[in-house]
Amino acid sequence: MTRTAFVTGASSGIGRATAVALAQSGFQLVVTGRRRERLEELAQQLTPTPVHILTFDVRDRAAVDAAVASLPAEFRDVDVLVNNAGGAHGLAPIQEGDPNDWDVMVDSNVKGLLNVSQAVLPGMKARRQGHIINIGSIAGHEVYANGNVYCASKAAVAALTKAMRIDLLPLHIRVAEVNPGAVETEFSEVRFKGDAARAAKVYEGFDPLKPEDIAEVIQFMVTRPANVHIAEVTIFAGAQGAATLIRRD
Ligand code: NDP
Ligand code: 8X3
């Protein structure tokens, strides 16, 4: 029987690459994001894999619930949930931080993950099977200058992943955390509010991770048999030794 993967934030970067990799492994897909045209383009690229598109903001709990409830019967049994949607907004010392950025990061990276998980979990619970991959970050395991609230939001993802793993154990649902280092995506453009030149500088002078590098690890994790649970993986770029320690030569 075809397995179903539900990937949030599939309109760009790591989520998009994960959808492609999971389609290659034979999954059918539910792909989500706010930019429908990007998701339609992805669905075209994935032909002939069956793809169902849901557009919602992960911060909007009612919209998340309505979108998941609207899934057609053939996509309702979600086997794998990849909680990937999110990102960083701003990079400033705490005393100069913009509270609107704080709201977006906490509401998306933490509460968004909870909203989507809560909407998808009843099906996994009823079937007593499921696999959830939460995209954390090295930033959730280290704190760097000016990273404050983004780092805190990803530290919350680390804690929630452990909590979910414990609470969902009796239900046969595996929960794992994937912590990327520096991956070249739209991440820095979003963080720097569209300043492409500043974003490009983040990846200058070294070979950063590509979204496909992370997708390949997720693909491996979710295709392990039920007796294997890879609980946590950190993936650095080859030139990276810590979140902000990067050899640029
Ligand atoms: P991108 O900006 O390229 O992709 C982010 C994705 O998340 C987009 O598809 C976007 O879709 C979606 N998204 C963001 N906010 C919302 C929202 N409120 N509601 C619905 N969808 C949303 O960045 P990445 O691929 O790099 O980021 C993916 C994840 O990886 C994030 O959680 C990020 O924190 C994490 N990460 C990234 C690293 C990096 O170096 N790139 C390193 C470590 C972790 P749309 O705009 O269409 O809604
Ligand atoms: C993204 C990686 O180190 O830029 O989460 O915060 S970092």
UniProtKB/TrEMBL annotation:
Keywords from the UniProt entry: Oxidoreductase
Gene Ontology molecular function terms on file: oxidoreductase activity, acting on the CH-OH group of donors, NAD or NADP as acceptor
Annotated transmembrane regions: none
Annotated signal peptide: none
Pfam family, one: adh_short
Family in the record: Belongs to the short-chain dehydrogenases/reductases (SDR) family.
Record protein name field: SDR family NAD(P)-dependent oxidoreductase
